[in-house]
Amino acid sequence: MKSSKKPLDPVVKVGLTVFIGSFLLIGIGMFLSRPDRSIPPYSIGSQEGAVVAIHLPPWTSDPEIRTLIQRFQKVKKESGDFGLMKIRPTTPNDPTGRYQRMTIYFFSDHSWTDQEVLHHYLTASKEKRGEEDFKREFESAARGGYQFGEEGQKGWIGPIRGKQEPVP
After folding, report:
1. How does pLDDT run across 85-110, given as a tens digit for each residue?
2. Extended strands (E) in 49-149
3. Which of 15, 135, 144, 146 could make an S-S bridge to 106, C-beta 3.0–4.6 Å?
């Protein structure tokens, strides 16, 4: 007795190959492009010149912030290109490099990372009534920071001014 199975049509074979191949490509691509799990998730809230306000989820612990600061330090030491960290060039017209100085502030409350709030903080005048209170609130809301420039680099956990824990 002969088998009654017919071989698959070549068009069906191509279709199945494309179908299965596309799932393989998607799976491999997702694995290779997955976010870095060694640092906490973050988003760039706003950036004005060389100052960047980063939003962290409220549950981000101090050791996780330390890890993120250390990642920024590593990028500065190895390549100095923070584009992969989602930060636009802070000194785009500088002939010595696009990232010659930068200050990053980390916040858990996204409202402090708003573009208008960051601009208000950077342009607040000490002479105006209420501006000093706003600056104090902004600085105390920060969970940490990272800064580098001609004078070197430093990272810290804690408010912008006040008791800070240095991150080596």
Report:
1. 899 999 888 888 889 999 999 999 99
2. 51-55, 102-107, 142-149
3. 144
